[in-house]
C-alpha cells in the first residue's frame, strides 16, 4: 500500500464500494434502526412496570444496532480483494472453514459475538449508552407524567448487579454448548445474554463509581489531599498541567484539543477495531500480534520459567479470550503498521464523512427553508436525520472496510517478504472478484 496513492485510492475505492453495495447497506441500516427504535419503545412501556426488564429490552435494542453494522460489514466483503482471497485460501487449506460465499447463520452470530466487546466500549465511551438511557427515561416520563413510573431507588444498582451475574453465567453455559455442538441457536443466545451482562455491568459500575466518588469527596483525607494543591501549584508556574488538574481532569493547554483528539483520532481507530473483529477470523493467532521473532523470544523465556509459571501459561489465554480480544487488537496494529501518515489520512477521511453528513443536513434545511407552522421542523427533523444517517453510516462502513482491506494487504505483503506489487500479491488480488467500475 503506497502511502502516496492513498489520497486518491481510499476515497475512490470507498465510493466504488458504496455504489456497488448501496442497496443492502441502506437496507440493513434501516432494519437495524427500525428494530432499535421499536424495541426501545417497548422498553419504555415495560420500564414503568419493572426497570430491570425495561433496561434488558434496551440492551437488546442496542444489540440490534450492532447486528445491522455487522451485516453491513459482511455485505461488502465480496468487494474487498485481499480479505476475500485470504478467506478463500483458508477454506481451501482447512476443510473446517467454510468459503465466504457458503457462510451461514453460525458464522454471522460468531461475528456478532466477536465485535460485541469493542462495539459496546465505543458505545459507552461516546455516551451513546447514556443517550439511550436518557431517551428511555424521558419516554417513560411522557407515558407516566404524573409519576406513574417507579423512581430510581437504592436497590437499583443491586438489581442490575444480580441480573448481570445471572446473564454472565448463562453466557458461559451457552458458549460451552456452542463450542461442543456448533449450534447457531445457542450461539445466538450467548450473544444476547452477553449484551445483557455487559449492559447491566457497565451501568452498575458507572453508578457505583459515581456513588464512590461522592463518598470519597466528602472524606477528610480527600479534603486534606486537595488542600495541598496551592502548595504544588506555586512550585512550577511554567508547567502547563498543575497539581489540581489531576483532580479536576483539566489537562491545561491540551483541554481545547481533547474533543478533537477523541472524536478525530481515537474514534476512527476504535471503529477500525470493530471492523477487525468482524473480519478477524484469521487474526486469532498470537503470532500475528507478536510476530515470529517476538514469539520466539517469549517462547525461550517461558522455557526457563518455573513449573508453576509454565502450567499457568499453558492455560492462558482461557477459552474465548483469543477470539474476542485478538482481532480488535490486531486491527489497531494493522493501522499502525501502515504508518502514521496512512493512519492520520484515514482519520481525515473519517472526519470528512462526518462533515459530509453535517453539510448535507444544513444544505437540505437551507433549501427547504422556514415554515409558518412551528411544528414542521419538529416532525421533519427526525425523518431527515434518519435519511441522512442511512447514507452516511453505510458510507462510513465502506471507508472502514476499504481501509482495513488496504492495511491487510500491506501487512500480508510485509509478512510474506514481498512488496505490494509482487506477483504473489497480484495473483491474490486477481483471485477475488473486483468491484464493479
Structure description:
The longest helix is centred in the first third of the chain and has 42 residues, at 6-47. The chain starts with 5 loop residues before the first helix and ends in a 6-residue tail after the last helix. Helix content is 77%, strand content 0%. The chain is globular, with a radius of gyration of 25 Å. The chain has helices at residues 6-47, 51-75, 81-93, 105-125, 128-143, 156-181, 184-217, 220-227, 229-233, 245-248, 255-278, 286-290, 292-303, 307-314, 321-337, 340-368, 376-415, 423-431. It has one domain. The protein is mainly alpha-helical. Helix 16 (340-368) packs antiparallel against helix 17.
Structural topology:
Blueprint lengths: L5 H42 L3 H25 L5 H13 L11 H21 L2 H16 L12 H26 L2 H34 L2 H8 L1 H5 L11 H4 L6 H24 L7 H5 L1 H12 L3 H8 L6 H17 L2 H29 L7 H40 L7 H9 L6
Helix pairs in contact: 1-2, 1-5, 1-16, 1-17, 2-4, 2-7, 3-18, 4-7, 4-11, 4-15, 6-7, 11-15, 11-16, 11-17, 15-17, 16-17
